[in-house]
Amino acid sequence: MLETQNLRAGYGHITVLWDLSLTFREGALTAIVGPNGAGKTTLLRALTGLIPYEGRILLGGQPLAGRKTWDLAAQGLVMVPEGRLVFRDMSVEENLCLGAYPKRCRGDVSAGLDRVYALFPRLRERRTQAAGSLSGGEAQMVAMGRGLMSQPKILLIDEPSLGLAPVIVNEVFSIIARLKEAGTTILLVEQNTRVALSVADDVHLLRGGQVRLSAPAADIALDRLHDLYFAREA
Ligand code: ATP
């Protein structure tokens, strides 16, 4: 349902993504893995209209060229940035409510909060606390909860395991697996290939801004992925 065709993007005169042609299946969880600087976050930024690009991005066959981030979020394409990017001076609940700004979600804010608190009971306990004083895992939950308040059809999640203790990583990933089971299409950028493979249906490996491997997760052996991950540029 979401695809890129010869996508080329970067910053100023620096090209980061080189002619990426990728498909993301509806209802599937696709992991985007690759070493530092591979262009994974840049891909999410292009998909959510945050940076200009060449080539095409299609959603349900319709080109997204020129569409603004807020407009895409209103249509259900929502990015969850890494947890450190919450609004630190605002409370947990104020952060969550920001996610309910698409028009179709505004009437339903308290039901949205209830859904988020059911998934993350710890956030209910801390709803009046400043987001800047949360632990890394709690901040990641706020970032995800804020995305869920927009009632996404496609959720793009950037590095949810970054800086988290293993037990919290498991907690966050069990929520991601539940969101997939509930029918949300998920694009997951993740450095931790082991956990990424454990939840993914499909995997795209990026290196140097190019696709090095696209395959069903079930067909990929972890050591083969690591070989490709660390291979030197030709
Ligand atoms: P990581 O896993 O380290 O987050 P990544 O695969 O997500 O890496 P990107 O963040 O997409 O990689 O960065 C790809 C390249 O683009 C890097 O060389 C980075 O320095 C560069 N880059 C990222 N953001 C900017 C920016 N705002 N201005 C200029 N260059 C940038």
Question: Can you give keywords for this protein?
Answer:
alpha/beta; 26% strand; 234 residues
Low-pLDDT windows of residues: none
- Please summarize the sheet with the most strands: 6 strands, mixed
Total helix count?
10
Separation of the first and last Cα atoms? 33 Å
Q: Which percent range describes the beta-strand content?
A: 25-35%
Oligomer: single chain
Which structural class should the secondary elements be placed in? alpha/beta
Which ions and ligands are bound to the chains? adenosine-5'-triphosphate
What's the helix-strand series? Answer: EEEHEEHEHHHHHEHEHEEH
Give the overall shape, derived from the CA principal axes: globular
| Tally of strands | 10
Radius of gyration, taken over Cα atoms and rounded to an integer in Å: 17 Å
Q: How are strands sequenced across the largest beta sheet? A: 6-7-8-3-9-10
Helix content: 25-40%
Overall average pLDDT: 91
Pfam families: ABC_tran
Keywords: Amino-acid transport, ATP-binding, Nucleotide-binding, Transport
Protein name: Branched-chain amino acid transport system ATP-binding protein
GO molecular function: ATP binding
